[in-house]
Amino acid sequence: MDEHANKDTLKVILIGDSEVGKSTLINRFCLGRYSDLYLPTIGIEKNSISALQDGRRCMLELWTSSGNERYKVIYSHFYKDARGIIIVYDITNRTSFVNLKRWIRDVQLYAGADSTVFLIGNKSDLENQRVVAYEEGKEFADSFGYHFLEVSARSSVNLEMPFLTLTRITNCNQRHSMSF
Question: Which InterPro entries match (predicted)?
Answer without folding.
Answer: P-loop_NTPase, Rab, Small_GTP-bd, Small_GTPase
